[in-house]
């Protein structure tokens, strides 16, 4: 399987892996796809710098990219203290009460006050871009759509392409107007931030809307070669896959996080929920006792971005350190129903390629 | 494009059209697909009988099917009067107040008291089956999943196949265990009754779950040849399309309903909502002032099936007779964004076939 995207990105197979794990990203790039490292977990730009150094040494010279979380409009930001003061005490009480009810222990003293996940802040996302552009990256993707035009220009001046996620055709058009090079058409069934329109409808709609001005990657619901082939049938130039790498061995190497993986392995395709509780914007998450608590009639409404993430940041840390797969907070798409064993990235990747070929052969026989 | 389903159903192209319009159903069958006439609009079995007589004379001897709405479990039914008494007065007041606010006129005196749409009642659906089996039908499809086993056996004794819609893999398995011959995997993006799981994820899941015991039709989000090809890539043996025929010329011939078609033509893929207000079970509808009124904080919760449909039946009649495309009640899928002109069925059908071939050719070049 080869599309024009392979030439655009200098890759062998048009499969792009979004992942917070540098081990997954490197393994995908080495397998001939494009690994895209999610930067939102790096509060400290120096830590991102060190991880990208590691990437530079472990991708065998193959291309890779990074993913940031940056609104097109620059929001007014305060300091951490200012933002904290905007969180209603009732919300904090609800979070603490819920964690107590779920039996989630407090963080050890030496891990408290780490300050939450700051990658959702515009200034921090900008520092991610600055750091990343000092490395030989091929792509900057933005989870929240088109980044500000100056970021796009900065990337282009480093010969780095820019990709932007879109959940509606009108957004995709706007992204390309801004100078975005690749559109990721992310359907309703995807994990993380996601819109209402399903991949089957969204992909050809976006392909038609931007009329060949940029290649389109299909995202949402992809975990088999049949689904990659379907994405290509819909007019995409490749597949953007995020959730499916969460149950690879390499993800476990980075995250050391067997509880989350255990929860993902046990889930079926009905075990997700789209909710604003993760960041303040609708995102698809694994359905757990934590998401159920927020769906109860007495639960507060989630706060807007970035307040909601600050509110739940400690809770996420606490649940990740605890050992209850029923109480985790994890973005994942409906493809979770097909994530049923821990496997190495290379094996997953080769299975995808093999099934794409099988699907093409099967379709050819229907003619 | 030919799949095993073509032999199973004796059709030329594996495209099945669900439609309440006999003119659409006949045109699809004549074009080489399978037209499946929705029976729920027929309160009077004799009227269905007459329409099926018309089908027998106007399908050129090509196969066709019918679609009924029948729960697998036989519910306790009262008479129309009993059911009416179960509807809270507050619900009736809300409906009347909403229609007044939307400026929807009352029905003329001679059209009142027609008794609502009874096709949602089990007894009426059974009478539809009895009538249909007196005609040379090829297929009975059930919108609510597997029909009761005695209905399946009755169909089989007439050499009629049974299809059942499924929104989850476990439902599909149960349908096939009951003797259902064809599973329609209907994704979240579909119009009418629909589940949470999107077509991209659902179709291969159901194909794998039933392991070749029955062919699978993909439903939800299909309106172009690219989407038909994607459905086949996902492992489906064909496409089940419902919404897309609502803006054909033939639909207008049956329904004489230019207001609804006008509303559909104007809508984009974001203009649908999944709600229980149509029948009591979650169904995707065109987003209008009517659906928005039910989504308001002060609106009552929809009633369970079949009460909700009885409650809103007169309202549906009133809105259909009125001339405001902003106040209609119409099940439709997200593909509505691609329904932008009134065209004859044959033209739509031929475009689908042409684009499937183009897609296969395009995919072949990616190998």
From TrEMBL, chains A, B:
Keyword annotations of the record: Flavoprotein, FMN, Monooxygenase, Oxidoreductase
InterPro entries cross-referenced by the UniProt entry: Aldolase_TIM, NMO
SUPFAM superfamilies named among the record's database cross-references: Inosine monophosphate dehydrogenase (IMPDH)
GO molecular function terms attached to this record: monooxygenase activity
Signal peptide, first to last residue: none
Keyword DNA-binding in annotation: no
Protein name: Nitronate monooxygenase
The organism of origin for this protein: Saccharopolyspora endophytica
